[in-house]
Amino acid sequence: LYALCSATTFVFLSTGPTVSGSLVKGKVGQNITVPCFYTVKRTQDITSMCWGRDSCPVSKCYQTIIWTDGWKVTEQYNSRYMLKGNLLMGDVSLTIVNAEEGDSGIYCCRVEILGWFNDQTSNHKVVIEKARISTASPHIYTSEQTSAHGSTSESSFTITRTWPLVSASEAPQTASGPCSSASDCLDVTSNLQNASVLHPSQQYSENGLYIGIGLCAVLLAILILALFIT
Fold first, then answer.
1. Where are the alpha helices (DSSP H) in the chain?
2. Where in the numbering of this chain does the Ig-like domain appear (predicted)?
3. What is the pLDDT of residues 8-30, one digit of tens each?
4. CA atoms in the 13 A half-sphere facing the CB of 220
């Protein structure tokens, strides 16, 4: 009797449901697919199934997410959980759209097979992690690095622009040096001309002096001539 009971128990357990599972990892915001399949060789093999949270119970699904009659989805408790596979070919994989951290946990896939304790069940662990944020700071180029190749041209340009700013008193000293280019000599000449124009009173005083000396000479000559005549 004991041997008979043991054999019966062994047969009962061997014909029980097959439990398998997988580990699925993803990041927040991604679409995650939890695989689940069953064999469909003919139309009669198409059957109902369900997805639920937590490990598979003795029957049905705990905290049911979605139900299908094998041909189409009949119940859906959250729009983010979908069956995008070909149901008629036995692809009942669960797709989690825009995954969240709260979606992490154990998921049960139960395919209902005719007969006692023939359901195909599988428990899948889902891990949803936060997306990594890069902390590397962007490289900032300084003005010195940016203008390194053009420093010579910029300095010569600055010197050229400073020539018109030389004052009249400094112009003769600047002109005494050699000219680096024809444009520099032209700038110095124009500065000298401008210096002479800026002081017309000096020219007027010199002309008056010359006229006074001339008049004195004429008067002196007339006086000497008058003395000789007398």
1. 2-14, 143-146, 151-162, 171-175, 182-197, 200-229
2. 17-129
3. 333 333 334 444 678 999 999 99
4. 6
DSSP line for 22-47: EEEEEETTS-EEE--B---SSGGG--
Question: Measured between alpha carbons, how far is 227 from 225 in angstroms, rounded to an integer?
Answer: 5
Place of tokens 């695989």: 35
Classify 159 as helix, strand or coil.
helix
Question: Reduced to 3 states, what is the DSSP secondary structure of residue 10?
Answer: helix
Instruction: List, in order of start, the domains of the chain with CATH numbers.
Output: 25-129 (2.60.40.10)
Residue 150, C-beta contacts closer than 8 angstroms, at least 6 positions apart:
none
Residue 39: Cβ-neighbour burial (10 angstroms; 0-12, 13-18, 19+): exposed
pLDDT tens digit sequence for 168-216: 444 444 444 445 555 554 554 455 455 444 455 555 566 677 787 888 8
Give one word for 16, left, alpha or beta, with left for phi > 0 and alpha for psi -120 to 50.
beta
